[in-house]
Amino acid sequence: MTQLIAGTPAAERSLGTVFLADTDVLTKELLAELCAEHPGRRTGAMGTRAKRFCHDGGYLPDYTYGVVDKCLLSAMTGEDTLILTCGGMLDRVELRARMFAEESGIVVPVVRV
Asked: Is CB count within 10 Å lower at the N or C end of the chain?
C-alpha cells in the first residue's frame, strides 16, 4: 500500500500532518477542543495510559493498534491525524516518522500539540 501511494508523483500528492498530544498533560476539555477544530480527523491512542485517558473521558479513538503506521498512511493520503500517547512513546512516534522518511523519502510532518 505504501509503495502504491509513494508511487504517486509528489506534485499530485498532498500530505497530511500527524499531530501528537501528551495525555499526561492533556485535559479532557483540551481534547474536546482539538477534536472540535478538526472533526473529521482520525485519532489513535498508544499505550495503556493514553487508552485509559480516552476511556475515562468517554472518547473512542479510531486506532488502538498499529497507530503510527496507520497515521503515517493516512497522512500520505492527505488526512491529518492525532496520536494520543505519553512518556517515551512521544519520542518513539517522532523516531518512527523519521525512519519512515529515510526509508520512503516522504517526510510526514509530526507536530506536538
From this structure: N
